[in-house]
Amino acid sequence: MKFFKPIKSFKDVNIAIEIFAELSASRMSKIMGFPLLELEITEKDGKLGLLMDHLPDKANENVVNIDKIKSALAFEEVILNIDLKEEHVLAKEKVAYIIDHGHSFNAWKPLYYIQEIIDKKVSRFNLWSNWEKFMEGVEIINSIDDKNVLEILRDTAEEIYQHNFCKLFDRKAVEETVDLSFRIFRYRKRILSSLF
Ligand SMILES: Nc1ncnc2c1ncn2[C@@H]1O[C@H](COP(=O)(O)OP(=O)(O)O)[C@@H](O)[C@H]1O
Ligand SMILES: [Mg+2]
Asked: 108 CB less than 6 Å from ligand 1?
């Protein structure tokens, strides 16, 4: 079964940046092996949205991929996901996934706020993690070449620009979003072990 999450329709550039954050997080998780869902921009009943697998259950510590969930705390911190909470960890057949990355990177954040939180731990749920599992996540993130991350951020921003559902996401916004998101990622990667 599939779950469809419609794109919100306020007049705000963050509507597009939110979709950028969701898709970028999902694609980065894929090359790093963290448990996020694959997302696809799709139209349903005349509305654009994100299509993903439907997850019927609340996750708990007994899921089969609990070690990956624990190490994904490093991922959630490096992408500055300020919206990680227990309700955002769902499961299907005892395999857990972290959902909702629409408040990662620069999405919904004025610059002064990014400056305020850039050195801080931001997650509100610790994914049952511990220092050892967190550091396994840090190692995975460190093993990925930043060039691959930049490529994902660029390609994703371009794709959203081409979809043209938010006129405020213009060329300048595309460049700013990629630049800011990549800077957030690189900075937090450098200080990641202090964010447990
Ligand atoms: N893949 C999914 N499968 C099942 N339920 C989901 C899925 N994604 C989201 N939900 C449900 O919808 C709620 C809202 O989704 P979420 O991604 O958090 O949207 P929002 O960005 O509006 O907060 C979630 O808290 C969850 O209950
Ligand atoms: Mg949510």
From this structure: no
